[in-house]
Amino acid sequence: MPTIADRLKNVSISASAAMTQRARELAAQGVNVISLSAGEPDFASPTHAVEAAHAAALAGDTKYPTMDGTPALKAAISRKFKRENNLDYDASQIVVCGGGKQVIFNAMLATCNPGDEVVIPAPSWISYADIVKFAGALPVQVACPQEAGFKLRAEDLEAAITPRTKWLFLNFPNNPTGAACSRAEMKAIADVMLRHPHVWIMTDDIYEHLIYDDFEFCTIAEVEPRLYDRVLTVNGASKAYAMTGWRLGFCGGPKDLISAIANVNGQNGGGTATVVQAAAAAVLDGPQDLLFERAAIYKQRRDFVLSELAKIDGLKCHKPEGAFYIFPNISGLIGKTSKGGRKIESDTDFVMALVNEHHVATVQGAAYGMSPFFRISYATSMEKLTEACARISQFCAELR
Ligand code: PMP
Q1: Residue 163 in 3-state DSSP?
Q2: What EC number(s) are associated with this protein in UniProt (predicted)?
Q3: Per residue in 44-87, pLDDT tens?
């Protein structure tokens, strides 16, 4: 029999996708499931994005794209980096890909050799480690403990770097914790990186605009300009503009790295859909009020869910600065048994019992590299959040 490649042996199906699938199965059986498992805004994509894509298609902008992005979109991205991040990236320093995920995938394929190490602060987005392994490199996780607000501490980062380290990944505001770094915290990370000139830094700023309580977002190339030549600044339309299905991500970075990424992109998909690029240019250059309006709504949801979870014995939550996730610690519930008879020995037992018995889908911390925790995505309506919190509360109260 023909066989599947060895490189897939260590690459898993994402646990959040698996949980979303479980929620769908229950829903298909007629169960009223509330899904808090997907990292996806519940808002509609902006109307002017849809109109721009439509206009581009009608105007015949439907031929093969260039492998690095349309000049119009790259110009809009360049303006975005200047306006929002005070970063100068010209057209030769920007690549457009099919989502932030593809940017990171292409970047790792373009740079990693077997045996290279990639330092990933944990907990982290599920895909980072899988992408790194796909590229033949080794993910090296560094714990960002709850006591430290889930932030990367300079001494832990310093200890993780070796001569084989190729990349450091940063993702603040973070998936799954919502933690964001202040300028001083980012500077402490930058100071470590100044001492290790052989390491590139990939900063995934996809949650940049989901930030609350006047917390100020910052990104490492701007905080420490001496690192500018080693930083790949990644962003996209998915989270900020509720455009997950369009598949649009981009990055700014040093020219040589950017052309290597564009080269991989040319073979991996061959460039991003032209009409999607037209839509992205429209949102980046268009009115930005929706960002603030939506952030206010997310903040209200975050505060509500936090206050409800605080009433539950056995859960310990850290207040997140951004994104749309909460990552409660369930160590107080380990060892108990659910009403349905499932022994809660891990966070995976916890989320499985919760979805099967009270029909709320969440994701176990183990999937993000930190246990015993679970991730709640509050990117859904207040009505559903209210019902979900009541169910989680009842589920926990029934544990014996
Ligand atoms: N980075 C992080 C941290 C994410 O959580 C996600 C989406 N879950 C992505 C990147 C992927 O974004 P995109 O839709 O742009 O591929």
Answers
A1: coil
A2: 2.6.1.-
A3: 999 999 999 999 999 999 999 999 999 999 999 999 999 999 99
Owner of token pair 């019902």: 387
Q: Which amino acid is present at 253?
A: G
Residue 224 lies in domain? 47-285
The ipTM (two decimal places) reads 0.99
Identify the H or E element spanning 220.
helix 220-223
Sign, CA torsion 33/248/85/116: positive
Domains: count for the chain: 2
- pTM for the predicted model, two decimal places: 0.97
Cβ–ligand 1 distance for 204 under 6 Å, the answer yes
Ligand 1: atom nearest CA of 103 is: 16
Atom of ligand 1 minimally distant from the CA of 125: 3
Domain boundary among 257, 285, 313: 285
Please tell me the distance from the alpha carbon of residue 289 to that of residue 373, in angstroms, as a whole number: 34
Q: Is the CB of 171 under 6 A from ligand 1?
A: yes
Q: Assess whether 17 and 108 both reside in one domain.
A: no
| Same domain? 129 vs 106 | yes
Distance CA 399, CA 382 (A): 26
Residue 1 lies in a domain: no
Other C-beta atoms closer than 10 Å to the C-beta of 26 total 16
349 lines ligand 1 (CB under 6 A): no
CATH of the domain at 236: 3.40.640.10
Q: Tokens for 139?
A: 């993910």
The CATH number assigned to the domain holding 320 equals 3.90.1150.10
Cα 125 to ligand 1 centre (Å): 8
CA distance 347 to 342: 12
Tokens of 163: 């001569």
Could you give the 3-state DSSP secondary structure of residue 213? coil
Q: Is residue 52 part of a domain?
A: yes
